[in-house]
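Hypothesis: this fold can be encoded by more than one sequence.
Test: take the C-alpha cells below, design a sequence, compare later.
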C-alpha cells in the first residue's frame, strides 16, 4: 500500500526525459524546460497579455520581472515554472504550485498555462500542459486543479482536451472592471496506472 510519503517523494529533475516537440523544420523546434531568472521579463510580457485580455486572470495591474522573482522566491521544492521555446524564443509559460500548505492537501496542486498571443492555436500550449502534468506527477501530486474564468471558453475546451473535468462553479466570485465573473473549477486525477506513461 502506498502512503502519502511515497507519493510526495520528488525526483531530482521531474521534467527530465521530456522530449522537445518538433514542428516543420529544426528552426521551428519547440523545447520545454525550467524557466530561469533571466527570462522573468519575457514571462511578464506574456502574462500582461493575459491581464489585458480580461479573460484569463483576476489580476488587473501589469507585472514586471520582479513579480516572478517574488513568486519563485516563495516556491517550495515541489513548485516550479516551465517555459516553452519556439524557434529559440519563449512563447509560453506554465506553473505547478501547491494547492495549499495544509498537510491534508499534500497531493493536490494548481496548474496554469499562458501562451503568447502570437503563438496561440499551434499546439504549443498542449505540449506545455503535457510537461506540466508529467512534472506534477514527478513532484508526487495526484490531484490537479485549474481555476478558469467562465467567459474563457477557449481555456475550458483546452483543459477538457487535456482530460480535466469540471468539478464545479463558483458564482460571482470575481469582480473585474465592474463585471461579476464566475470561476469554473476543473480537475484532473492522476492514477497509479499512469505511472509508466508519466515516467517514460
Amino acid at each position: 500500500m502506498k502512503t502519502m510519503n511515497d507519493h510526495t517523494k520528488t525526483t531530482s529533475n521531474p521534467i527530465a526525459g521530456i522530449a522537445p516537440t518538433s514542428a516543420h523544420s529544426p528552426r521551428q523546434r519547440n523545447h520545454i524546460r525550467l524557466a530561469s531568472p533571466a527570462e522573468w521579463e519575457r514571462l511578464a510580457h506574456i502574462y500582461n497579455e493575459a491581464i489585458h485580455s480580461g479573460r484569463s486572470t483576476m489580476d488587473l495591474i501589469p507585472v514586471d520581472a520582479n513579480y516572478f522573482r517574488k513568486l519563485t522566491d516563495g516556491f517550495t521544492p515541489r513548485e516550479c515554472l516551465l517555459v516553452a521555446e519556439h524557434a529559440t524564443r519563449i512563447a509560453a509559460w506554465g506553473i505547478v504550485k501547491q494547492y495549499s500548505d495544509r498537510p491534508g492537501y499534500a497531493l493536490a496542486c494548481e496548474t496554469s498555462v499562458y501562451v503568447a498571443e502570437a503563438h496561440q492555436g499551434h499546439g504549443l500550449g498542449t505540449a506545455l500542459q503535457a510537461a506540466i502534468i508529467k512534472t506534477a506527477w514527478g513532484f508526487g501530486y495526484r490531484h490537479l486543479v485549474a481555476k478558469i474564468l467562465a467567459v474563457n471558453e477557449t481555456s475550458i475546451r483546452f483543459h477538457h482536451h487535456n482530460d480535466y473535468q469540471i468539478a464545479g462553479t463558483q458564482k460571482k466570485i470575481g469582480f473585474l472592471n465592474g463585471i461579476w465573473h464566475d470561476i469554473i473549477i476543473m480537475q484532473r486525477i492522476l492514477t497509479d496506472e499512469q505511472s509508466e506513461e508519466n515516467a517514460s
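The first strand starts at residue 30 and ends at 34. The chain has one domain: 20-199.
Hypothesis status: open.
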